[in-house]
Write a structure and sequence with these properties.
Length: about 425
């Protein structure tokens, strides 16, 4: 294959899905079967989506610090090629990392070889080599979008993880920049970024910060899960639950230095029982409608493509039914609603208007955000955003440090600044 340049930013948001294989879940890398993968991808392409996000298991691909298995890398390339044959672009996560309540870390970081994954020089060098290898191998493929450092690796850095790898925000910053740089050196110009679960936005003192998410990498990734207290507190049919993903997209913009930095809603799903199964299609449509009203949205990648096979044990109950399709590849109501929303969005390509009203976000310090719980469900920023939305406004967010910066506000199209205490 010849090298292909990265695709230019799409005029309209991208729509995709996180690929969960029907046979063996992510353990399929141990018994990789390309024919099964092709059939899975056919069912995904049938929904009208344009990309998938895929997850090589880190211990399978790099079982020893100095062994990155060539056969595994070849199989990943075969998956990307098969996706391309079906008109699907592919984003690849590297360090898996954490998936659906299970951790996947190689033995050279655990037990007798216990070393901090964010600060140990040998471990960090091994991770960088691995990410570079994957990016370099995939770079010649025109449908390769880019690398995400790993899936929600911030959950390894603190509570509630039972055995965290502690790091300071400064150490996290250095680690993230080295990982993203390794991806960029392997595949220059692609969409390389990192992704955190919402502790980065909502949990005081968490070492992965909003600043990291909004300043490092080619885009900001947000993962929206309403089982974080949103659905429990406000209800499945509330404004807050329907708007949670849009809220995270807009909150992320408060920390960005580029007024038009793209934000990727990289994970969002309808978890039961917080969203009852019979309500999943409505929630899907409401969530998509809300985020499509956010300027500078790169795209939406739903979690996930297919249900988890009930023959696999020990998953949290909600994980089994998150798919848009069943394990025998039948389209579920949420899948049909997403496909319909995609068709509607492509028929109406008008970009959303700027959001001119901004809720002030005061977290104590822009870089480390030690008081970011004000942004979480029940916090004053969250409450103000949702009240304004319920009243028909289209709010965004601005840091307190920029609330009086006329140039910053103008660059983002903000004409009104509202403090949370002023919203009743």
């Amino acid at each position: 294959m010849t090298a292909a340049p990265a695709r230019p930013p799409a005029a309209a948001p991208r729509f995709g899905v996180n690929y969960t294989p029907t046979a063996g879940w992510f353990h399929h890398w141990l018994d990789f079967d390309l024919d099964t993968v092709r059939t899975d991808l056919d069912s995904i392409a049938g929904l009208g989506l344009d990309h998938v996000r895929v997850f090589p298991l880190w211990p399978v691909f790099q079982p020893n610090r100095t062994l990155i298995r060539p056969r595994a890398v070849e199989q990943l390339g075969a998956l990307v090629d098969a996706a391309g044959e079906r008109g699907l672009d592919v984003a690849v996560d590297g360090l898996q990392g954490h998936l659906s309540s299970f951790d996947f870390q190689p033995s050279w970081t655990r037990t007798w070889h216990r070393r901090n994954m964010f600060t140990d020089p040998d471990v960090v060098a091994g991770q960088a080599a691995y990410l570079h290898t994957l990016a370099e191998a995939l770079h010649p493929r025109g449908n390769f979008l880019g690398m995400t450092v790993g899936n929600e690796v911030n959950q390894f850095s603190g509570e509630p993880h039972p055995d965290p790898d502690r790091a300071t925000p400064e150490q996290v910053d250095a680690w993230l920049r080295r990982m993203v740089d390794a991806c960029e050196r392997g595949a220059p110009g692609r969409l390389h970024l990192h992704a955190s679960y919402d502790a980065a936005w909502y949990l005081d003192e968490h070492p992965f910060t909003p600043w990291h998410s909004a300043r490092i990498g080619a885009a900001t990734a947000v993962h929206s899960w309403v089982f974080n207290g949103t659905a429990q507190r406000y209800g499945a049919r509330s404004t807050a639950t329907a708007q949670h993903a849009a809220y995270l997209v807009e909150l992320a913009k408060a920390w960005a230095d580029d007024p038009h930095r793209p934000v990727w809603l990289q994970e969002v799903g309808a978890p039961a029982p917080h969203i009852p199964a019979e309500d999943a299609a409505r929630f899907t449509g409401d969530t998509i409608a809300a985020v499509l009203d956010c300027p500078d949205l790169w795209g939406v990648t739903w979690w996930c493509s297919h249900d988890v096979d009930r023959s696999l044990a020990d998953f949290p109950e909600l994980e089994y039914g998150l798919g848009l399709l069943t394990t025998d590849r039948r389209v579920k109501p949420a899948g049909a609603r997403l496909a319909e929303a995609v068709r509607e969005a492509r028929a109406d390509r008008r970009p959303p208007r700027p959001r001119t009203t901004a809720v002030v976000v005061a977290t104590g310090d822009a870089v480390t955000a030690p008081k970011r719980s004000v942004c979480g469900p029940g916090g004053p920023v969250f409450e103000a955003f949702m009240r304004l939305t319920a009243d028909g406004a289209r709010p965004t967010a601005v840091l307190a440090e920029h609330a009086d910066d006329a140039a910053h506000l103008a660059a983002r199209g903000i004409t009104e600044v509202v403090h949370p205490d002023d919203v009743r």
